[in-house]
Amino acid sequence: MARLALRLGRAGVARDFADRILAQDADHREAVQISAAACRSLGDLGQADQMYDRLLALDPANASAWNEKGNIALATDRHQGAVDCFRRALDLIPDHPMITCNLGLALGHAGSHEDASRLLEELTRRSDAPAEAFDHLSAIMALRGNMPRAETAQMAGIDCFPNRSRGHLLLARLRSTTGDREGAAEAFRQCLKLDPDNREAAFVLSTMGEGETPESPPDEFYAGLFDYYADFFEWHLKEKLGYCGHDLIRASVEGSLGPGRGDLEILDVGCGTGLCGEAVQPWARAIDGMDFAPKMIRQATRRGIYRQLEACSALDFLKVTQRRYDLVVAADVFGYIGNPLPLMMAVWSCLKTGGHFCFTAELGNVERFGMGDHIRYVFHPDFLTAAAGEAGFTILSRDQAVMRHDGDEPIRVEVLLLAARD
C-alpha cells in the first residue's frame, strides 16, 4: 500500500503507511526507502536525508539511495557533498547516464567547471544521454559566461528531444537573458505549442502582441526565469549589463537619510542575490529579504547579512509579516510586477511612522505603465508620483539615471525616496 500510494502521488499517505511498518520492523528496507522518498516529495529534505542515511546503514550498496542523497545535497547547496554521493553511486553502477548527468551538474556548482563540462560533453555524445544532460551542460556554460556554447548545448538537446517542451523553455530563458528577443519568442512559441498550458510562455508572447498582456505577470514567469538566471546573475548584471541599481539606491538613501548608523530595520524587496541588501547594510540594525526565486534566496543566504529570507512574492510577504520597518528598498523590482500601486500600499502598511521607501522604476514612453521592449514593465514618471501619493507617501527625492544597458541602449530609471504619511 505504501508503494502504491507513492506511485499515485500521495506522499503523505505513503509516509504514514511506511512509518506503521517501521514501528513493527525498524530495519524494513523497503519501508525506509519509501519513507525517504515520501519525505523528499513533501519537501522535508532534512528528514529525507536522515532516512537515506538509515537506508544506507542497512544497505550500503544501494546506488539509488546514494543518488537521492546527492540530489538532496545539491538542492541544499552542499555541492561537494553532492559530488561525493554521486561518485559513490557511480562506483556501484558505472556510467549510469542519469547519475553521470547529476554528477556533472554537481561538479559545476562545486566550482569544477572544466571537469563538469568535459563530463557532460562526453555524456551528450552517448546514445543514452538523458535530456537533462544537455540542460546541465548549457547551465554550466552559462555559469562560465560562455553564452554561445550554452545556446549550442541547449539546441543540441532540442535536436535530440524535439517534443520536450522544457528544452524550448530553457532555450527561451537563455535567449531572454542575452537580449535575443526574436529568438526567445520563437522558443517560447515552440514551448507553448508543445505545452499549451504553459503560462510563462503565454505571458511572454502576450507582451509581443500575441495575446492580451495582463497588468501583472504570472508568478511562475519571473520565478522560473530568475531561478534559471541565479547562478550567473551577478556576473551578467555587472559585466554585461553594467547594472548599478543597488548603487543608485544607496546614493538616494544616503542623500536623504545621511550616513548609515546601523540603527534601522530594513526590508529588501526582491532581494535577488543580495546586492542591494549589501549596499544598504551600513544603515541596518537588521535586514530581511524576500524574492520569488528560491535559487536567488540561496545565493543571498551566502552573504550572511540577512536576518530573515523568504522565497515568496513581495505581496505575499507583506500581507503576513508582523514586523514594521524603518526603510524598505526595491532595486529593479517594479519592472517585474506591473501595476505598482498594490506593492506601494503594502509597503506603506508595514512601515513604521515616518518610515521610508526607496526604489527604482524603468522609464518608458507610456501614459501610465505598460510592457516595454525588453519584457519588463516601464512607467511614466508622473504616474509613479501619483501612485505614491495615492498609497500614502510624500516624495523626499527623485532622480533619473542610467541603471543598465541592454545592448547599446541605456536603460533610464526613476529613483524615488518616499516618506510614509500618517
What is the strand and helix layout of this fold?
Blueprint lengths: L1 H6 L3 H14 L4 H13 L3 H14 L4 H13 L3 H14 L4 H13 L3 H12 L6 H13 L3 H14 L4 H13 L3 H14 L4 H9 L11 H11 L3 H8 L4 H13 L6 E6 L5 H5 L4 E8 L2 H8 L6 E4 L2 H7 L4 E6 L10 H9 L1 E12 L6 E3 L5 E3 L1 H10 L2 E14 L2 E12 L2
Parallel strand pairs: 1-2, 1-4, 2-3, 4-5
Antiparallel strand pairs: 5-9, 6-7, 8-9
Helix pairs in contact: 2-3, 3-4, 4-5, 5-6, 5-7, 6-7, 7-8, 7-9, 8-9, 9-10, 10-11, 11-12, 12-13, 13-14, 19-20
Question: Any overview of this molecule?
Answer:
The chain is an alpha/beta fold. The chain is 55% helix and 16% strand. The strands form 2 sheets. The protein has a 7-stranded mixed beta sheet, sandwiched between helices. Strands 6-7 form a two-stranded antiparallel ribbon. Helix 5 runs parallel beside helix 7 and helix 7 packs parallel to helix 9.
